[in-house]
From TrEMBL:
It comes from the Bacteria. It comes from Streptomyces luteolus. This is Uncharacterized protein. Residues 62-81 are annotated as: Disordered.
Amino acid sequence: MAEIEGRRILLRQAAVAGPPRLRQVEISVLLAHPTTEILAPVPGEETAAAAVLSGLADEEDDELTVKGAAPPGGAHRLSAR
């Protein structure tokens, strides 16, 4: 890579013989090309919320469950501890 300007990247190809060749491309084209590799660490897997909630004790589950009918106006009222 020789230069970045906005959405355009100037690529420099080092030739075996002769001067290097330059080629300007849009970053979206470069990223969409099948041979492009992103050299960044892959984030670790996160446990799904359903899996976490399925492991709660009954008391903990009861704390998260809204019980009863909706008050007039249709909205439930939640209180924070």
